[in-house]
Design a protein that fits this description.
- This protein is of the alpha+beta class.
- Helix content is 31%, strand content 18%.
- It contains 3 helices and 5 strands.
- It has helices at 8-13, 58-79, 124-138; strands spanning 21-24, 28-32, 42-46, 83-87, 103-108.
- A 5-stranded antiparallel beta sheet has the order 1-2-3-5-4.
- Strand 1 (21-24) and strand 2 form a beta hairpin.
- The protein binds 2'-deoxyguanosine-5'-monophosphate.
Length: 140
C-alpha cells in the first residue's frame, strides 16, 4: 500500500479537522487520541508523508522518536502513571487503522485494564483539559 493523503492525520496536519494539540514543531505534531485507551493517551506524528515504520525516512524517524520521548516525559509528569506504553502498529493485521505513521503514548495505571483500541470517543472538553495538563508539563 502506498501513502494516501486522505487519511485523518493528514487532515489534522492540514488543519481540516480539529485536534487537542499538545506539541508542535517543524517536523512533528502531538495531540490527544480521540478514542483514548487510558487517560492521557497521546499520539505523535511526523509532518512527512509516511505510512508506517518501514517507509519513513531515517531522519524523519529520528525527529519522531525524539518528540515521542519528549512528550512521553510530559505525559509522565502530568498524569503520574505507574508505567507507560509506547506503541506503533504497522498494517491492518497489526491493528493499524490510520495509515500515517504514529506513536501511541499510553499511560498505565496499576490494576487498571486498557480500554479497547480505536473504540469509544472521549468527551472533547476532557481531551482539551488533558492536553492543557501535558502542555503545562512540557513548558516546565
Ligand atoms: P492505529 O490503530 O494504531 O492506527 O491508531 C489510530 C488511533 O487514532 C486510534 O487509537 C484512534 C485514533 N483516532 C482515530 N481517528 C481520530 C481522529 O479523528 N482524531 C484523533 N485525535 N484520533 C483519532
Amino acid at each position: 500500500m502506498s501513502y494516501s493523503s486522505d487519511n485523518i492525520f493528514a487532515m489534522i496536519l492540514r488543519g481540516e479537522i480539529p485536534a487537542a494539540k499538545v506539541y508542535e514543531d517543524e517536523h512533528t505534531l502531538a495531540f490527544m487520541d480521540v478514542m483514548p485507551q487510558a487517560d492521557g493517551h497521546t499520539l505523535v506524528i511526523p509532518k512527512v508523508e509516511a505510512e508506517n515504520f518501514f517507509d519513513i525516512p531515517d531522519e524523519s524517524l529520528g525527529h519522531l522518536i525524539v518528540t515521542t520521548r519528549r512528550v512521553a516525559r510530559a505525559v509522565q509528569a502530568a498524569f503520574e502513571p505507574d508505567g507507560m506504553m509506547i506503541t506503533q502498529l504497522n498494517g491492518p493485521a497489526a491493528g493499524q487503522s490510520v495509515f500515517h505513521i504514529h506513536f501511541h503514548i499510553i499511560p498505565r495505571f496499576a490494576g487498571q485494564d486498557l480500554r479497547s483500541h480505536g473504540r469509544g470517543m472521549a468527551d472533547s472538553d476532557l481531551l482539551q483539559e488533558h492536553a492543557a495538563r501535558i502542555r503545562a508539563a512540557l513548558s516546565e
